[in-house]
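Supplementary notes for students who missed Thursday's class. We covered one full example, reproduced here. Read the sequence, then the structure, then the short commentary at the end.
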Amino acid sequence: MCGRFTLTVDLPYVVDYFRLQSIPDHFSPSFNIAPSQSVLTAVEQNDERRAGYMKWGLVPFWVKQPKKWKPLINARSESLTDKSSFKHLVEKKRCIIFADSFYEWKVENGIKTPYRIMKADGKPFAFAALWDRNRESDTELITCVILTTNANEKVRKIHERMPVMLDNEEAWETWLNTKEYPYLKAKELLKPFPIEEQKLYVVSSLVNSPKNNTKECILPV
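Structure (token representation):
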């Protein structure tokens, strides 16, 4: 699964690296992004890759009482078309969420040890995600969910699941361009990240609380 992640680079870098044509007015790096927070995402609209903020934790359009709904932060990629919360999104409402690492906790003898997991080269990537719009409350909700897959052999030592990491232009275009790439093609991307291109290390227990959002969260222990 994915319950916490980071995006520590500045906005100009994100814009250039992901080839964005539209960006939000405000942005600040974050070392400990948590569910229910606004996360920087992108969709493809009118042949442009447009970035903006969505709330992390999906609230489907059909939910009549959003305040009583438990937001969905992760979705198993293997069963998307079987679930009422996701099956209507896979063809038209695909998005990516920008990140440069995620955290996972290894549990041994009742003790939880946090790890930071990232690309071996340290560069950003994008989570494959879905989004939806709910208009049932006074305030319109635009929310998203991160897709997960089976963990690769390296991450499996910590947790059995991991988020789907997309790390190149072809993958971003295939996932975002719903006009050119139907879900039948795009779902080929929903697989574990190669172990030889990934690294991980133990970090401080500071990341256990989303109140802590400083550079100390990502430093190796």
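Commentary. The two ends are 23 Å apart (CA to CA). The longest strand covers residues 125-134. If anything here is unclear, bring it to office hours.
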